[in-house]
Amino acid sequence: KQWYQRRVRGPDCGSDLLKPQVVFFGSNVVSEKVDHCYEKVRDADRLLVAGSSLHVMSGYRFALDTSRRKGELAILNIGETRADQLTDLKVSARCGEFFERFFRRNMELSPS
Predict the structure, then answer these.
(1) Cα separation of 10 and 18, whole Å?
(2) More exposed terminus of the chain, fewer Cβ within 10 Å: N or C?
C-alpha cells in the first residue's frame, strides 16, 4: 500500500475511524455539553443567536430557555428563524458583514 492508503490508529482509542469534534445533522449533542451550555446561558441576561435559522432543537432549546426565563433574545440572521416570535431584537444581515462593520465602528469610537 501507498503511504496515503494506510490506516492510522488513534493513540488513545486504537480506532482507525476519525470523527471531528462536531455534531453532524441528525446526531445528538453529548448531554454533558448541553448541560454546560444551559449553565452558561442561564448565567447570562441576554442571548445573541448569530447565523442560525434555529430549525434544529440543539440551538432552538437555548432560545426557548432564554425566553421562558424572560431574558433578552437577539437574533442576527438572513431570513426567518424558528425563534422570531420570541426575540426582543431581530437584525436581518449577513453575520460577517455585520460584525465587520460593528467592530470597525466601535474601534473608531473607542479611545486609544
Answers:
(1) 8
(2) C
